[in-house]
Every structure is written in structure tokens, then in C-alpha cells.
Amino acid sequence: MTDQAVVEKLKAKFPSAVLDVKEFRGEVTVTVKAEDVLSICAYCKNDLGFTMLADLCGVDLLAMGGSGPRFQVVYNIYNMKAKQRLRLKAPVTESDPRIDTVSGVWGSANWLERECWDLMGISFNNHPDLRRILMPDDWVGHPLRKDYPVQGPGREPYQGREV
């Protein structure tokens, strides 16, 4: 199935959820509504053959100065039989940075979503074990956010810790 056919199937199945489609250097990116991401990911896996979640990450668009949502959750998925990649993006607001977990669709999402929460502060609804994975349990904040304080001894969040 071609990239165009995948996009057309997504548009037909989720007409109001597909917000944008971009192609750059042979890679297709489909931006979808956050509230539909679980259904879309399940459809991509079960009906379109994207059985592998290669990566999931959060993006902070604060420095971009746009008027849209501050964050995006990005899903890089792969159809091993067709050797085909697809990137899904879901915008997430700063006021309520949360989205449904896809750990029930792809088991690998479990740790990737924990990393995204730990470093970006994007919460995943119904995640089976959402807790810090890289930072210490007592860490304050999410260090990959663009507005996270400059780091170093004597500054937050290191203040009072031995370095």
C-alpha cells in the first residue's frame, strides 16, 4: 500500500480527526486530533499493518511562537511487511497536557510514554504505570520543556543537593 493510500484510508475512516498531512523527503506526517489518537493508532496497527511503534516522543513548540497548542506527541510507526514508515502527530495543550495511552496497542509505548511524561510533563490517560523513568523520584519539573530553568549548582532544581 502506498503512503497516499494509507493517508486516504485514514481520512476516510477518521474524516474529522485528520488535521493535516505533510510529505517531506519521502516521509509522510499525519497530524491528528489528540482525542482520537487511540482509535487511530489501533486502526493503523490492526487494519493498516503498522505493527511496530518505533518511537514516541514529546515536542515543546514554545520557541516556535505559534498560536496553536504548545506540545505535540509524535508517534513513529512502522509496517514491517510493507517496509513502510508513518509519522503521526497529536497536538496537546499547555493548560491540560494529557493524551490517551497507546500502551494497549503497542506494548513498547509503556516506557516511551513514561519517558515523555518524565521529561516533558505530558500525561497519558489510563497508563498502567505512569511514574518517573529517568529522573529521580523527588525531581521537580520536566527538564526538556523549553521554559525549564537553567541548570547548575545553586540553581533550581539542584538547590540543596550535592553535585
From TrEMBL:
Entry EC no(s): 7.1.1.-
Broad class of the protein's primary localization: membrane
Subcellular compartments: Cell membrane
Domain spans labelled NADH:ubiquinone oxidoreductase 30kDa subunit: 30-152
Cited InterPro entries: NADH_DH_suC, NADH_quin_OxRdtase_su_C/D-like, NADH_UbQ_OxRdtase_30kDa_su, NADH_UbQ_OxRdtase_CS
Stored Gene3D superfamilies: NADH:ubiquinone oxidoreductase, 30kDa subunit
Reaction it catalyzes: a quinone + NADH + 5 H(+)(in) = a quinol + NAD(+) + 4 H(+)(out)
Keyword annotations: Cell membrane, Membrane, NAD, Quinone, Translocase, Transport, Ubiquinone
Main function: NDH-1 shuttles electrons from NADH, via FMN and iron-sulfur (Fe-S) centers, to quinones in the respiratory chain. The immediate electron acceptor for the enzyme in this species is believed to be ubiquinone. Couples the redox reaction to proton translocation (for every two electrons transferred, four hydrogen ions are translocated across the cytoplasmic membrane), and thus conserves the redox energy in a proton gradient.
Family: Belongs to the complex I 30 kDa subunit family.
Subunit architecture: NDH-1 is composed of 14 different subunits. Subunits NuoB, C, D, E, F, and G constitute the peripheral sector of the complex.
Protein name (record): NADH-quinone oxidoreductase subunit C
Organism whose genome encodes this protein: Geoalkalibacter halelectricus
